[in-house]
Specification:
Elements (H helix, E strand, L loop, with lengths): L1 H4 L3 H14 L4 H10 L6 H14 L4 H17 L3 H14 L4 H14 L2 H10 L6 H13 L5 H11 L4 H20 L3 H11 L7 H15 L2 H13 L4 H17 L3 H14 L4 H7 L13 H9 L3
């Protein structure tokens, strides 16, 4: 058992084989021998030996699953993924509801490229204790897939309403998609995506800032401007990113002729981050300085009305 505990499945298999040869009538010896020999013999032979042992000691079924799982993990860690999959599948025959075992099987399926079955197995685990691990497994599958991540997580959210793991990954996908939408000037769609992926109360300050900036860029209004100011005051580390987003939006709005909303964004920036005004005025592109409480309003108007 020391070799088994140390993760040396090859040495464990040899040791248990010796014990089994000396005591073939002992069910535990037969089970350990069968489970740890699964890396070098056919699954049918392992199953037959396990079944004979379990007929005499059915209470040892958890031991059989535990030994198979340990051997499967050892096989996977040494790169023998096909053999690991066989062992995990065999173990699942004896404990089909074991979610840790199903997770290891899904991860192995993903490694060998059986993405369809891996996705199905991961999805079946989302409601259980390994839902977050399953979500990360699905996220990795999406990286090599043509399926749009936001579309995929939306469909899962419909099938798993309120699932915290699905909502987490939906938020991530929505955040990436909404940033691209915002930076392209699609403010209404960016705001819609963020309201979906980070609904009130949005606990992610960065996504919340981007959402209110999108709403402010799309329709103006005091409410989103106030939300931006409050979020920045509570999360000072977001100031630089927020300034970058505001500059990007102002350029888009200016090009579209929406000068009033561009000015509103500038006012919001000054009100939320007055200490950043001097640095921004001195070093920003287009020689831009802020208006509203700024003494240099003429520079803002030069930025708004003259081509960059």
């Amino acid at each position: 058992m020391a070799r088994e505990t140390a993760g040396d499945t090859v040495a464990a298999a040899s040791a248990y084989a010796a014990v089994f040869r000396s005591h073939p009538e002992v069910p535990e010896a037969a089970i350990r021998h069968a489970a740890f020999s699964a890396g070098s013999r056919e699954a049918a032979d392992v199953r037959s030996l396990l079944n004979r042992a379990l007929e005499n000691a059915p209470d040892l079924k958890p031991l059989a699953v535990e030994c198979l799982l340990k051997n499967g993990i050892g096989q996977a860690e040494t790169g023998r993924t096909e053999k690991a999959l066989t062992i995990f599948s065999l173990a699942a025959e004896y404990d089909p509801q074991n979610e840790w075992l199903r997770l290891k099987r899904a991860q192995t399926l993903a490694i060998i490229g059986n993405t369809g079955q891996a996705r199905s197995d991961f999805e079946s685990l989302l409601e259980g204790p390994y839902g977050r691990d399953a979500g990360f497994g699905l996220q990795r599958l999406l990286q090599d897939s043509d399926t749009p991540p936001l579309e995929y997580w939306r469909s899962l959210d419909a099938n798993h309403p309120g699932n915290e793991h699905v909502r987490f990954f939906l938020g991530q996908a929505g955040g990436s998609e909404s940033r691209a939408l915002f930076e392209s000037g699609s403010y209404a769609e960016a705001a819609r995506t963020l309201r979906e992926s980070c609904p009130d109360p949005c606990v992610n300050p960065e996504r919340a800032v981007l959402r209110y900036l999108a709403e402010l860029s799309e329709t103006g209004g005091e409410a989103p401007a106030l939300q931006v100011r409050q979020l920045i005051q509570a999360n000072k580390t977001l100031a630089a990113q927020t300034l970058s987003w505001i500059l990007s939006a102002m350029e888009h709005l200016k090009a579209a002729g929406n000068t009033d909303r561009a000015v509103t964004l500038a006012q919001t920036a000054v009100n939320a981050m007055p200490e950043a005004e001097a640095g921004w005025a001195a070093g920003s592109r287009n020689n831009f300085v802020l208006w509203a409480v700024s003494p240099c309003s003429s520079a803002l108007w030069g930025f708004l009305w003259n081509p960059p």
